Amino acid sequence: MRGPAPATAAARQLVLLSLAAFASMTSMRICDPLLPALGRDFATTTGHAAQAISAFAIAYGLLQLVYGPLADRFGKFRVASLAALGCALANAASALAPSLDWLIVFRAATGATTAAIIPLTMAWIGDTVPYDGRQEALARLLGATVIGMITGQWAGGFLADTLGWRSVFVALAALFAGTGVAMQIAVRRALGGGGAAADAPVETYVARLRAVFRERWARTVLALAFIEGAFAYSAFAFVPAYLHQRFDLAMTWAGGVLALYGVGGFAYSRLARGMLRRWGEAGLALRGGVLLGATLATLALAPHWAFALPACLVSGFGFYMLHNTLQTHATQMAPRVRGTAVSLFACTLFLGQSFGIVAAAWVVDHASAAAVFAGAAIALPLLAAWFARRLARN
Predict the structure, then answer these.
(1) pTM of the model
(2) 209 CB contacts (<8 Å, ≥6 apart)?
């Protein structure tokens, strides 16, 4: 029996990968608006409850060292499909967590399984889309991920206020289970039709890592990803708790305000082609950094929660102007071992995020979230300016 045509199979795989990426980003941001509820239920501080976020990020980053080489050996789509099923189990366990410590463990397991999906989807696009169209293709993938971000940041607060925080993880488990099963069916169809299930093995694990780190530009992109993760992700993780605690805004509304960050990212994904043609990669990254600085400063100084509405919207737009440019270079920094290279990019990004969240949680508990926003408002424009300068030289 013949399988589907290659183009049809690839289109189907891209749809399923995008759905898995949506679920992945939903899971990644779902705890941001849950921090006050977790703090109340487990009788702890917001900073301590934030360990559920940092544990996810640490596991997400470290497991990239495993998934990249596995994907180069066994196939990016196949590995991502198995990871989606693992995500379903980890989220089901989170829903049943009897204590904060166990929730942290299960969130780490969620990060460990979720880790495969978005980086391997990026690498899959890198394999199939020529470079001159790749940033646009990645921007379309961004559309799926930012909708997931919006869903996570708003639905997390809404469900916590209405059905309780455990319902959040039940919903995620069901979403990942359905997606993972559909992906496994696609894998079996590809095998039945004689489709290639795996990429050809290129080199040993250590040799793949060396192939990435030998490239000077790859080392630069990885360092930038770490710094971006440390400042950007850690700052926005505390926005809902900040709005709730400083302005007494209900968590449903606080999560909804942060969801505008995702709306801004989605708007960028629709406008990316025109902006890229007008400003080029360097101009796009620089302007993104400037927008981030201005909006984070607004959050730090805002006298009323309403100022967070435009700040979150514009910050999402600015962040993805910078981040999408970094992503594009991550897919090209070591094409021969693309799965390993993109997974290393995600590893450094989320190790930076975990480091940043730990540091930001200390600042929040000992000073304020406004201080975190102010620090990021200075660091991110400087990062963008340096990156843009390097791009202009290349």
Answers:
(1) 0.70
(2) 65, 340, 344
